[in-house]
Design brief:
Chain lengths: ~325, ~575
């Protein structure tokens, strides 16, 4: 064990010297800034209030004998007048509502005019979604299809579910999983480099055994990820996002990294060559990721429920240990003799 | 011809690093990937399962909510449900159709999600009755109208008919043919001289009204990029192998030039990427011209992997640099693709145009050039630079990356007459691409933050690129004057900017972004622009000469401030900024 720690310390030393760790942190910064860019970009359209965007300034106009949209739009007597304001940029969407009776049997065709390739048009259209949906419910009721209704105590709050689900269901799992995968890539590089540069022979004539070398590298690669995850979650929390159950998240990332790193070690010691190992390993990760996202209570789902503060079963964090131990035993039998 | 020999060697002897050993595993892994993708498609994503919880006393509501796996449901009598809510076990409490929520984010989000779940449930319930017209009594016809916006690629005279945009997901089984009466209205409106030709229209219903985000096509284009990651990996592995096994030494000693080695090794991988892309294209059913959009993307991936594998000291470093490059490139390619229907500037990304083509639209030559020329230029530049650094000294030494870059630069500067001038010209495509990346990052922010940020950052990028040559000279201890390097590099940058950007950026020259990038040449006389570039470069060269390279960042910031201030004043003067 002591010898393995010596190897681990040597690995950390070289990581610090080459500034690879800094690069790793920059990678995560990029991932975070781009994913939050996408999240904010998307939510601006779906739920403007969730990202603090006020839509009063994107005006819309309506033409037709209806007062259904008056709280949301300006009323115009004719399409020509509405067009005037549309082209001068005072409004960014026009609805024309026909005289078809809402309660009648006929289908009601509403025309919506939007500026092509213009953000404001999209925002104006999304602002109209609510009154249009109310109009639809009204028309359905008129045709005998009564919607299920629930009532909210007090003033209904802003809509934020998509933003919430993006944040806790995409961004945070991504930030927790990236260091885990990076550690997997790392173990492959350090092991296959010893083989390709033939330095493994030199190491083996020293008092180190093959298992000391492998264990040392596994320890080094495994401990990096939870440290990165910890830094991350601290940064995210400082940005005002409340992340729950941080100790559990760190624990889960440790166990997941152990599994992924042992898997990487198996692949690297089998191929003894970087390109093939990285290729096979990343294909395996794709499969694991796909299946992990599809199974409820799999680690990815656990990360989401932990971080968002919903209830979760702590015992499930131990499940990845089973394949990890099996793989480790296999590694020892097959490649460390 | 030597190039082809190297290419043939790479293909037959090295078998692109794939070999027999990987062939079987590849096929197996591919099948497993397909199977798991199929499984996911069947059962869907379950990342957000159990993220919300709700306590109810009503079996009907409980049944509706249980249909959504995002919810955990506690069903009990009134007292039991209230107790669960008060104990914090549930985010929402529904008693006899009245919902209570807390002030927490999760609870507010849960309320919204509950609302969505009910709307979905109702729709399924109504659809099951089989009366389509009553289920969707209101239909919206979306018309996308051309309107001058502050940032729009102008339509050229030849491209008369504007193409359709905005495709929101149509509801299931909705008749898509156009109703007769609206078709007539349309004709009447158009012939009565409505001001603009209307674009094609799309149907939707109020509850299906969605922003025109082409999720499906973006996922499809990801299939093209995915093999590129892997193939680029193998190419860089091949270069790395030459370095580690020192076979490169033999190659360099042979009459083959470094350019032949680099390009010859690249060729088979490029062909492989294009072949794979063609296969995927046949599979998903698109037009072959999409390949022209993928070519510059493939070149960008391969050239950057080349440079990374020449510069990296170890496998670890190589992996990290490659991951970093892939992330930068992918976000440059995919983020605009998401917003192609929403903002015209999105067409900076070739993938955005590919999405457009997969959505069944056509693109113009102008758009093609606008999005691909910078990538072609940058790739060419990176490849040339890779060739310069492809020598025994760089390949087989363990110097840090920055040092190797400086080495490559000084090789370049030793071979070219008036090196600073030419470096200035060559910096243009890099500056252009970096600034376009900035635009895509900033265009969604409010203009009053985006424009100042862009002014400063764009100036910084230009000043950094202009200073690279001067920095190399000073750090190598060459004797230089204080003014001359600044004049040369500023003049070179000016020349390059006017030559290349004027041709390329004509589409956005009139917008605020365009004039910051120095292409609003109609707005202010050329002479001022030359004076600006020379002055700010002189700030750098004087600063570096007298303060030394230790204060590089400080000197660079000073030069950027000068440059930024000029751009700002210019924008105010020309009335682009109020």
């Amino acid at each position: 064990m002591h010898k393995a720690l010596v190897v681990a310390r040597k690995e950390w030393g070289s990581l610090l010297r080459e500034r690879t760790l800094i690069l790793a942190i920059i990678i995560q910064l990029f991932m975070a800034s781009f994913s939050s860019f996408v999240v904010v970009g998307l939510t601006t359209f779906y739920e403007p209030e969730a990202v603090g965007f006020h839509t009063e300034r994107v005006g819309a106009g309506v033409v037709g004998n209806t007062s259904f949209f008056d709280n949301y739009t300006r009323h115009y007597g004719s399409l020509e007048k509405a067009y005037g304001d549309f082209y001068s940029g005072r409004i960014h969407a026009i609805l024309t509502v026909p005289d078809t009776l809402p309660s009648g049997p006929e289908v009601i065709y509403i025309d919506m005019y939007l500026p092509k390739s213009d953000v404001r048009g999209t925002m104006a259209a999304m602002k109209l979604k609510e009154p249009l949906s109310d109009f639809e419910s009204h028309a359905r009721a008129g045709r005998g299809l009564v919607p299920t209704t629930i009532y909210v105590e007090g003033e209904p709050p802003a809509k934020i579910s998509l933003f919430f689900e993006f944040l806790y269901g995409v961004v945070i799992p991504l930030l927790v999983i990236t260091p885990v995968m990076i550690s997997g890539g790392l173990i492959i590089d350090t092991i296959s480099e010893e083989y390709e540069r033939k330095t493994v022979d030199l190491l083996l004539v020293s008092p180190l055994s093959m298992s000391d070398i492998a264990n040392g590298k596994i320890i080094a690669a495994t401990l990096i990820a939870p440290a990165q995850v910890g830094i991350w979650l601290a940064l995210v929390s400082m940005n005002g996002v409340q992340v729950y159950s941080i100790p559990y998240l760190l624990w889960l990332s440790l166990i997941l990294t152990l599994l992924i790193v042992i898997l990487g070690a198996c692949v690297a010691m089998h191929y003894r060559e970087r390109a093939s190992s990285q290729y096979v390993f990343s294909q395996m990760l794709v499969v694991l990721f796909l299946l992990g996202a599809a199974v409820p209570d799999a680690p990815l789902n656990l990360i989401v429920t932990m971080a968002s503060g919903a209830g979760f079963e702590p015992v499930y964090t131990l499940i990845p240990l089973v394949p990890a131990v099996c793989l480790y035993v296999f590694l020892g039998r097959r490649y460390m003799q | 011809m030597r190039l082809l020999t190297v290419a043939k060697w790479e293909l037959t002897r090295r078998q692109l690093g794939l070999g027999k050993r990987l062939a079987g595993v590849s096929v197996l892994l591919f099948i497993i990937t397909l199977l798991s993708a199929y499984t996911v498609a069947q059962i869907g994503f379950h990342l957000n399962d159990g993220i919300y919880s709700v306590a109810v006393n009503d079996k009907g509501i409980a049944a509706i909510v249980s249909g959504d796996p995002k919810f955990n449901v506690y069903l009990g009598d009134t007292a039991g449900a209230r107790q669960a809510f008060d104990a914090g076990k549930a985010d929402l409490l529904v008693i006899d159709g009245v919902v209570s929520y807390r002030k927490s984010q999760r609870s507010i989000a849960a309320l919204d999600a509950l609302d969505r779940a009910i709307v979905r449930y109702d729709e399924e319930r109504f659809l099951a009755l089989g009366d389509l017209n009553s289920t969707y009594p209101v239909r919206i016809i979306i018309h996308n109208v051309n309107r001058e916006s502050s940032f729009q690629l102008p339509q050229r005279a030849g491209d008369a008919a504007p193409t359709a945009v905005a495709a929101s997901t149509p509801p299931p089984a909705l008749p898509r043919e156009q109703p007769a009466e609206t078709a007539q209205d349309e004709l009447v409106r158009q012939s009565s001289g409505a001001r603009n030709p209307l674009a094609l229209q799309t149907f939707t219903t109020p509850s299906h009204l969605a922003p025109p985000l082409p999720f499906r096509s973006v996922v499809l284009t990801f299939f093209f990029i995915f093999p590129m990651y892997f193939v680029a990996q193998f190419y860089s592995a091949s270069i790395m192998e030459e370095r580690i096994k020192k076979r490169g030494e033999l190659l360099l000693a042979s009459p083959v030039r470094p350019a032949d080695i680099v390009l010859g090794k690249m060729l088979p991988y490029l062909l492989l990427i294009m072949l794979l892309a063609l296969g995927i294209l046949v599979w998903i059913g698109g037009t072959a011209s999409v390949l022209w959009l993928l070519l510059p993307v493939a070149l960008a991936f391969l050239s950057t992997s080349l440079l990374a594998s020449v510069l990296a000291r170890s496998f670890k470093e190589l992996t990290f640099v490659l991951v970093f490059i892939s992330i930068c490139l992918s976000s440059y390619l995919f983020i605009p693709a998401m917003f192609i229907n929403i903002h015209a500037v999105s067409s900076v990304s070739p993938m955005a145009l590919a999405v457009k083509m997969l959505e069944g639209e056509s693109i113009t030559t102008g758009e093609y050039l606008f999005s691909t020329v910078p990538l072609y230029f940058v790739s060419a530049l990176v490849i040339v630079f890779g060739i310069f650094t492809f020598n025994a000294e760089t390949l087989f030494s363990q110097k840090p990356v920055g040092q190797k870059l400086a080495d490559g630069l000084s090789v370049f500067m030793g071979r070219v007459p008036y090196p600073l001038f030419f470096l200035g010209i060559l910096a243009i495509p890099l500056a252009y691409t970096a600034q376009l990346m900035l635009v895509t990052l900033l265009f969604n922010f409010p203009m009053r933050f985006a424009i100042p940020a862009f002014i400063l950052l764009a100036a910084f990028i230009e000043e950094f690129l202009k200073s690279v040559g001067i920095y190399t000279l000073v750090s190598r201890g060459r004797k230089t004057g204080a003014i001359m390097p600044g004049v040369m590099s500023g003049a070179g940058f000016f020349a390059g900017e006017k030559m290349i950007l004027l041709l390329l950026l004509a589409p956005i020259a009139e917008s605020a972004y365009g004039s910051v990038m120095g292409v609003g040449w109609l707005v202010y006389p050329l002479l001022f622009s030359l004076a600006l570039h020379v002055t700010s470069a002189c700030v750098t060269s004087i600063g570096l000469k007298y303060l030394g390279t230790r204060h590089y960042l400080l000197v660079l910031s000073a030069a950027s401030m000068v440059h930024g201030a000029y751009n700002y004043l210019n924008l105010v003067r020309s009335g682009v900024l109020a």
